[in-house]
Every structure is written in structure tokens, then in C-alpha cells.
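Ticket #4471: structure output looks truncated?

Reporter: J.K.
Steps to reproduce: submitted the chain below (358 residues) through the standard prediction queue, then opened the result file.
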Amino acid sequence: MVDSLKKPAFEEMRPGVKVPSKETILTPRFYTTDFDEMAKMDISVNEDELMAILEEFRADYNRHHFVRDEEFAQSWEHIDGETRRLFVEFLERSCTAEFSGFLLYKELGRRLKDKSPVLAECFNLMSRDEARHAGFLNKAMSDFNLSLDLGFLTKSRKYTFFKPKFIFYATYLSEKIGYWRYITIYRHLEAHPEDRIYPIFRFFENWCQDENRHGDFFDAIMRAAPEILNDWKAKLWCRFFLLSVFATMYLNDIQRADFYASIGLNARDYDKYVIEKTNETSGRVFPIILDVEDPQFYERLEFCVKNNEKLTAIANSNRPGFVKFFQKLPLYVSNGWQFLKLYLMKPIETATMQSSVR
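Returned output as attached by the reporter:
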């Protein structure tokens, strides 16, 4: 049998080093921010909680966790074909997202060192965690004869500028949804070990606790600066970031439903659970959350799924580029319209929920 039939071809920069996936609106992004504005933050209102979180970071509960054991020392050729391609893609996307967090947190730690030492140390210790995660995922890719050149990613990726409050919204949601994604997969595979096709999933229970602590840090930062949460603009922006994170995950995961099937999960059921739990968790700090139980929430997302399937078919066709552009345009407009309708759905006010939690 020809070996290429067992291993899907990936474009390589050099032998064993994968060309990074093309950047799209749905791929993990790299961020930068206004470091001077961040340094001027007054955290005294919530400094006790931030110091308690810093002590947890210093304790470094997972310092001995990310160690590959004998289960990794075997051939993974039996994971082949489309499952192999999707699994490598999962590892790459996860590695890129973790590395993005590392770069942002490391730079924040460096820039804030002399101006806000508590925040600087928190960011440095979170960058330590993200570096471990990214390194562990990149090493997992090497089991499939590939890896990412993270130095190349640092220089080649476009960086999206967000003001500090937008960084807080986005990273809080990223960390909390990461927690729910990892713990949900872990619990499923704990109950169904026959579906655990690769040992990295055994590490997800401790791993997601890093994500949870990071999310708690951003929760505490936002509550130290009430202006980030307590006006009408905050409600609009929280709606935007909740919807962006949920829609991006849903559209990405449905495209990769075969990967989730390979570990015994239904992608739609998995995403709906993760969205429900992340939305609920966000209610502890955000002034509003989305009404994800409204039937039209997923109906509109499914409309976008169908549009994306058509977009993929057009992209893979042999038609001229200008023809593809005009065929794609109404589908992009349709997706934008669905997103707008989702954004305009009545949200759920959480002021009462937050008061009861505190």
C-alpha cells in the first residue's frame, strides 16, 4: 500500500515542520493591546482577591503534570486517513491558541513589571502555564511526524489590537470556554475509555484547572475596574464577545464533526453543552448573557453552517477566482445577517445573579 494513503499529506516548510494553517476569521488570533493604559489600572478595589489568585499561580499545582509517560511511546499509525488529518488539525489549533495566550501574557508581564508588579507577576505565571500547554501539544504533533515552528508563528502572524477592556472580555471567555471544553471531553472519556484514541486526553482534568484559574484572574480584574462592566456600552460589547466566541466554536466544530465522532462525541451536543455552561459561568461577572435556550439561537447558527458548506464547495471548485468571489458574496452577506439577528436577540440581565453569587 502506498504510504500516502495512510498519512494525509500536509504542506511542510521543511521536513517534519508543518506550514501553519491559513488565517481565516475562524482561526485562533494573536493579540496586542495598549500596555500603558493597562499599567494605569487601579486594582486596589479587588486587590485581596487578586493576591489570592496570585498565590495560587505561585503554588504551580501542575508543575509536574505535563510529563509524557510510556503510553505515548508507541506508533500512532493506526490513527490514519481523515481521523488523522482532523486530529492533527485539532492539535495545531489548540497549540496555536495556547501559544497566542503565552505571547500576550509574556509581553504584558514584561511591560507591566515596573508599573504594576502584581499584575505583571500574574501575567508572567499565566504565560508559564500557556507555554507548557503549547509545548505539550506541539510535542503531541511530533507523534504524527509533524510540529509547528512557534518562532515562525511569532513573526508571521498578524496581531489584532484590542483595548485592554476588550482583551479582558476576550481572554476571560477564551479561558472559561477552554475549561468547559477540556473538562467535558475528559469526563466523557473517563466514562468511555474505549473512545480515548490518544493519551493526551488523560491530562485534560488538571489542564482545564489552569484555564479556570486564568479565567478567575480576568474575572477579578474586571471587577476591580467596574467601569468595564457597568454601563450600556459594556452590555453591548459583552453580547458581541459572547456571540463571537460561541459562533466561532460552533462553526469550527461542526466542520470537524468527524473528529468528535472519533472520540465518541456528537459535535452539536458537545458544543451546546459547552456554550450553555460557559454562558452560565459568564453570568457571574458579565452584566448580560445570551439567551441560548431560545430555539432561534441554534437555528440561525445552523443556517450559517449550511452557508459555510456552500462556501467550502465553492472554494474547492475549479472556477476562476472572480467567479468564486461573486458566488461567495451573497453567502457572506447571509452569514452577516444571521449574526446581526443573533446579536439583536434579547439578552438575559445578570445583575440579580451576580448579587446572589457575591
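Triage note (M.O.): checked the attachment and the full C-alpha cell line is present. The beta strands are 12-14, 17-18, 30-32, 159-161, 288-289, 348-349.
Status: closed, working as intended.
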